[in-house]
UniProtKB/TrEMBL annotation:
This is Permease. The chain crosses the membrane at residues 6-26, 33-49, 55-72, 84-105, 125-151, 200-224, 261-279, 285-308, 329-350, 370-393, 405-433, 445-466. The lineage of its organism: Bacteria, Bacillati, Bacillota, Bacilli, Bacillales. It comes from Virgibacillus profundi. Keywords: Membrane, Transmembrane, Transmembrane helix.
Length: 468
């Protein structure tokens, strides 16, 4: 019997994806079948988890049940049945977006771009700024997978293992990825915050990119003054190593890869934003569909359909199994948010928030980053935290400026990634670099994160003052 369980899960995920696409493209909706399939996936994911990993999903579904029982707004069966579909689009997003990594890993795009850019990466400022910026660009395609890829590249170019140099390398990657959550459209936490707030996509991307760029420059300032000896030693190493990159790749092939990457980036980013703006489709719906179109078109153009089939088989028969914890969390969060939406508890939460922000010196935008960081410190990832906080805010009767809400939430998300010693990003870098998780996160970033928070709040409060 156990032999059939994984196949039930595989086919359940495929049917879940298929029904979601049919609903959005054709308009044919089968909610009961979708709920049934979601329930099967959720139960399987929950059963296969370690006992410790089961606690959070179980806590949320118990809370959802209690909300239903004590508010009498909806019966408990309806909450569990219909709640499965509340976050269906975001679950599809986290299942489909990783497919875009097949394109980036198909050719030596990363090496080619760094090789092409070697003439501007020969100083410490330009090198570490470039690492932070390119980590963000690459996260459009690889999400958190951009971290080990960039780390490997930096490690090969700067082989020095001095603790100061290691900190510079790891902090530049960690900060680069975290700042990407302010504007990178395919990062689920960002796209979810845009959708739930109904913010202008172009405004928040430009706002986030400018804020990220300023934060990169500030990070360089912190590097210079906090890690002076390592910063001095990095000069000769970067000059020697970057000059050697130019001879590692054939120039004709390098130019081809750079052009292809730029076309892919412009097409993927541009088509996503255009469809969202012109057709008024939700961002969470557009991104998975554009991802599939890009992947199919790319491998057709490269005449590598056999490789595409191999990637697909490996992903859906192996990698999907590793997403059981993610799926169990998002389905349980989905049920919890639905329970809040159909009950009166949202009114009480809104009253508490209004009480907390009743002082003229405190407002919602000041509190949200702290809430995101708090959730990060108890082990929740950026997307889970965003879904919980953003979903609750969206379900409450609270006035807010959408673009400022997105900035407040994403700044909190970025700080959470940098500060939480149990965050996935910190754990990944700590494992490969042998720098302690607490050292890499809280100890190395608290002053930098304080600046980011204060800078964002000055901007938000100025805009609020002007708008009032």
């Amino acid at each position: 019997m156990n032999f059939y369980f994984p196949f039930i899960f595989y086919y359940g995920v495929l049917l879940f994806l298929l029904l979601n696409f049919i609903e959005h493209i054709v308009g044919f909706n089968l909610p009961n079948l979708q709920s049934l399939i979601s329930l099967v996936i959720f139960c399987y994911a929950l059963i296969t988890l370690r006992i410790r990993a089961k606690l959070f999903p179980i806590l949320l579904i118990v809370l959802a049940g209690l909300i239903s029982l004590f508010t009498n707004q909806a019966n408990i069966w309806e909450v569990y049945w219909m709640g499965m579909l509340e976050l269906a689009d975001i679950i599809v997003l986290i299942l489909i977006v990783p497919l875009i990594s097949w394109i980036i890993l198909h050719e030596k795009y990363i090496d080619s771009i760094f090789s092409k850019a070697s003439f501007i990466l020969k100083t410490r400022v330009s090198y570490f700024s470039g690492v932070m910026l390119f980590t963000q660009v690459l996260s459009h395609f690889l999400l958190i997978g951009s971290i080990p890829l960039i780390y490997q590249f930096v490690k090969e170019n700067i082989k020095e293992t001095h603790i100061g140099i290691e900190k510079l390398k790891n902090l530049s990657i960690l900060r680069g990825f975290s700042l990407g959550t302010l504007w990178v459209v395919t990062i689920p936490s960002f796209s979810y915050s845009v959708q739930t707030s109904n913010a202008s996509i172009l405004t928040v991307i430009i706002q986030g990119f400018i804020f990220s760029s300023i934060s990169i420059l500030v990070s360089i300032y912190f590097f210079v003054h906090k890690y002076q000896s390592a910063w001095v030693n990095a000069a000769s190493m970067i000059d020697n190593k970057i000059s050697s990159i130019e001879h590692q790749i054939d120039k004709g092939y390098m130019n081809k890869c750079v052009k292809e990457f730029l076309l892919l980036f412009i097409f993927f980013f541009g088509v996503t934003v255009l469809i969202h703006l012109l057709l008024d489709w939700d961002l969470l719906v557009v991104i998975p569909q554009v991802t599939i179109i890009c992947v199919l078109a790319y491998f057709l153009f490269k005449k590598s359909l056999i490789l595409l089939m191999s990637h697909s088989k490996h992903y859906f028969l192996n990698d999907i199994m590793r997403k059981n914890e993610e799926l169990s969390i998002y389905f349980s969060v989905s049920i919890f948010i639905y329970a809040v939406q159909v009950s009166d508890i949202g009114i009480y939460i809104a009253d508490v928030l209004n009480l907390l922000t009743s002082s003229p010196l405190i407002n919602l935008y000041m509190l949200l980053p702290f809430l995101m960081v708090l959730l990060g410190f108890v082990g929740l990832g950026p997307l889970t935290s965003m879904v919980l906080v953003g979903g609750l805010i969206n379900s409450l009767s609270i006035d807010f400026i959408p673009e400022l809400l997105v900035l407040s939430l994403t700044v909190g998300s970025a700080i959470s990634i940098m500060m939480s010693p149990i965050g996935v990003s910190v754990i990944m870098l700590s494992t490969v670099s042998n720098i302690g998780k607490l050292e890499l996160s809280l100890k190395s970033n608290y002053t930098y994160c304080l600046f980011i928070y204060l800078f964002s709040q000055v901007y938000i409060q100025v805009i609020l003052t002007i708008s009032n």
